[in-house]
Amino acid sequence: MTQQEQLETSLSLTINGDRVRLKGISPTMTLLEYLRVNGWVGTKEGCGDGDCGACTVAIVAEGADNQPHYQAVNSCLIPIGSLAGRQIITVEGIANGALHPVQQAMVETGGSQCGYCTPGFIMSLFAAYYDGTLDDGALEGNLCRCTGYLPIRRAAQQVAKATPVDRFSQTLVAATTNLEPVRYTDHEQQFFRPTRLQEAIDLLQHNPQAVLVAGATDLGLEMSHHRQSFPILISLEAVSELKQIGETPDFVEIGAAVPLSQVETQLRGIFPSLDEMLHWFAARQVRNRATIGGNLGTASPIGDLPPVLLALDTQVQITGIAGDRSLPLAQFFKGYRQTELQPGEIIRSIQIPRQPTPGAARRLSQSYKIGKRGTDDISIVAASFTIDLDAEDRILQARLAYGGVAATPVRAIEVEQRLIGQSWTRETVQQVKPDLREAFTPLTDLRASADYRKLLIANLFEKFFVEMERQAVALGA
């Protein structure tokens, strides 16, 4: 039997409690497009880029506690193939003869004016309502252009202390988040969702032209705007070996398909610079889908996580047809959107060392993202710094990493070497600032000029010094 004959010609998923079977539909059609074509028009299309939140829906997915949760996601970025076997809830599905509590709260507080963004806000509030996380963070991925945020925040506050016991909470109790394998074709495109790593490797061997996808928050942009065709997609989001987080005294290992919202929750407090960047990485809808492997694999020069991981001396664990290998992240990026991955290889995980340089008395680490709209924008410059100091505050090791300043995420190697052995003082920082301004040759684009980026490269390092010194004083160090 050929591979083509083994492929299924239908997909099934659940929308608002009803099982839906899809035949002859492109697996790269976005969920948003499918919903609107088939009558679920309460879900709105705003930007189509995952920025505005008008298209937000909820899906049932596994959380950091390995239990089912409602998660708010951007339907404009998710290919329909990725949702096979999942439960989706849209704004049409949350009222049952009466308004849902979050809908009622929006009515009572006057949280809707033109109403275009309202369904997205409602679905973000809905997911947070059952998660016990009804705070401003629940709304960070939703933009309102006319009502203003105060009434919407009041709506969230009004229902924040509720303990939901209804059909939706009961659905979570009975829900399963185990995803079945998918081998689907619409006779023009093929979509695979293996559940084991070896299956993924075998599929890649037989389909070397296939494109890998996980959360689709980057690739989904191409699908949303129909800018590129994807004849064969292999989704890695259900591969069990890629969804693990492990901790040892020496390092933390994060599977390539672990969603960033899970990393944020499970590893909070271990790496301060990672905590900071995850907060600003993107809105909650994006963090619920985006993965470590995807953020590295796209090799974007403005990816937010690579500078943090570079500054933490991260190792990339790679697997493929030829076996396993480990590579320092500093050697992983070859050029613009190019990596050291060979044909048939997959990012398996990353390993972040937990221990500072031998002999270090303390470690200083923090990251920064400069953008125009906080969590809802890409970086003008992203920076992350790690400094290990001895007992006399001399620099034992320095890692100064940046995004948005070159064709790849990059470290300021020459400045790092100059810092070794120097005292950690304002004078030392001032001495290297001119070198930092000339360390890279950034571009001028719509977001910022090259000169502005050069100033940020140097000034962010000085900001890091000032903040670390204030922190030391506050702690009495």
Architecture overview:
The protein has helices at 3-6, 31-37, 101-109, 118-131, 149-159, 167-174, 197-206, 219-224, 260-266, 272-281, 284-287, 292-297, 305-311, 413-419, 426-437, 450-475; strands at 10-15, 18-23, 56-62, 68-74, 87-89, 182-185, 190-193, 211-213, 232-235, 245-247, 251-255, 315-320, 323-328, 333-335, 338-339, 345-353, 362-370, 381-389, 395-403, 410-411. It is α+β, with helices and mostly antiparallel strands and 477 residues long. The protein has a domain at 244-475: Uridine Diphospho-n-acetylenolpyruvylglucosamine Reductase, domain 3, CATH 3.30.465.10. The strands form 5 sheets. Strands 2-1-5-3-4 form a 5-stranded mixed β-sheet. It has a 5-stranded antiparallel β-sheet with strand order 10-11-16-12-13. Strands 6-7-9-8 form a 4-stranded mixed β-sheet, covered by helices on one side. Helix 3 (101-109) crosses helix 5 (149-159) and helix 15 (426-437) runs antiparallel to helix 16 (450-475). The longest helix is centred in the C-terminal third of the chain and has 26 residues, at 450-475. The chain is globular, with a radius of gyration of 23 Å. It starts with a helix and ends with a helix.
